[in-house]
Amino acid sequence: MIRLKAYKYRLKPRAEQITQFDQHFGHVRFVKNWAIALKGRYYRRFGKGLSSRRLQDQLVKKKKLANCQWLSDTNSQALLAALMDVETAFKKFFGGAGYPKFKRKYAAWQSFQAPQHVEATKNKIKLPKIGWVDCVMHRDLPEGKIKTCTIKRAPSGKYSISILIEQQVGKVMPCIIEEDKTIGVDVGIKTFAVCSDGGEIKNPRLLDRQLVSLKQAQRGFSRMKKGSKNRSKQKMVVAKLHEKVANARHDFIHKSSYNVAVKNHATTVCIEDLQISNLIRNPKLARHIANCGWGMWANALAYKLAENGKNLIRISPFAPSSKECRKCHNKHTGLKLSDRVFVCPVCNHTEDRDLHASHNIKRFGLQKEFEAAGSVVTVKRSPSSKRVKARGDVKGTDILSSGQSKPPLERDSV
Ligand SMILES: [Zn+2]
Questions:
Q1: Distance 344 CA to ligand 1 centre (A)
Q2: How many helical (H) and strand (E) elements, i.e. helices and strands, does the chain have?
Q3: How confident is the model at residue 413 (pLDDT cuts 50, 70, 90)?
Q4: 192: CA distance to ligand 1 center in Å?
Q5: 179-371: what fold?
């Protein structure tokens, strides 16, 4: 079985290498913008798309022009990869995404790719046209074919390389779904995640810790004169604070999802398939929701489970996981977001709200698996599998067949 996995390392380029990196960023950006414009022009004139083969030919011609010979200073593979990026952007556009955007010189993130001729040793990485660059190999690079490398500059001015490796791995036998080896996980703001086996992950509230210093830094930045040296210095201060939060979140997400996916006894995990972009439209909760990183957490959980042959069941975000009593199945419609304890008005079942929801998530997930075998609602077993069409007759779910694009702004289990 072939597995693609990216490994990211910090690069520490010397001053002249930084110049070379900047040159690569610039040339790649130039080629991208030129290709986007050319494809647009070609379409307007001839009413059809310019093929990638002909686009490459055009680039070769362009490089030979007297005023574009500087393009040869950059690794030609990086330029070809840039063309591929433009092709992908146009493919996405024809699939319904927005029109490809021109790249800005002062964009926060800059990147280029090096698809071939990359070598890695213990503390150095060799890049074509640039040579050996110092690198912090905080973990060993596994054996395998290097598919591509992406060199990036973060807003804080730090450079990193992400190496995509094709590995041969043994086939993982998938676990059987068993009720006593299944847990439901309910994510929330107050507690980051509550598992139906009683486990809890506290919300570290990483942004809140930096909020005061971020506010101060941003205020200072906006007061400084545009184009001044102090302003560009202050920009770095803001960027570094943001980076600190992002790094901490990244660390938290991987450690906590590892605990659930690998260290836990469970072989099947049920979660809600949250539509985070919709939830974020709630202005009161947007910052808190964005700060949690549920989407990243679910992705990390999904691939960690898949690597270990464990199952992930995603239930519909519209399933009444916090409102339906798990004992008598009566819907407690009067439950408010502020009610932290679930008390059933019919059978008087009392339980912590999040724990109750996690039990329901497990119940809905298993119900779908067992009762509607084959055609279940939004069940994902691996990160690559696609969503299955919703079926209304599955018990325990109330799928809104219409109006899926406009789900409620305030969701019940938050
Ligand atoms: Zn009840």
A1: 5
A2: 9, 14
A3: very low
A4: 26
A5: Nucleotidyltransferase; domain 5 (3.30.420)
What's the pLDDT tens digit per position in 46-86? 988 899 999 999 999 999 998 989 999 999 999 999 999 99
Locus of tokens 């560009």: 232
Distance, CA 241 to ligand 1 centroid (Å)? 47
Beta-bridge partners for 194: 186, 200
Distance 286 CA to ligand 1 centre (A): 32
Q: Please tell me the distance between residue 195's alpha carbon and the centre of ligand 1 in angstroms.
A: 20
When comparing pLDDT for 403 and 204, which is higher? 204
The 10s digit of each residue's pLDDT in 351-383 is 998 899 999 999 988 887 777 655 433 333 444
For ligand 1, the distance from its centroid to the CA atom of residue 316, given in whole angstroms, is 22
Among 414, 201, 198, 185, CA closest to 311: 185
Closest residue by Cα to residue 249 from 280, 279, 291, 289? 291
pLDDT digits (tens, 9 = 90+) for 164-192: 999 888 888 888 888 888 999 998 888 89
399 CA distance to ligand 1 middle (Å)? 22
**Distance (Å) from CA 346 to ligand 1 centroid:** 5
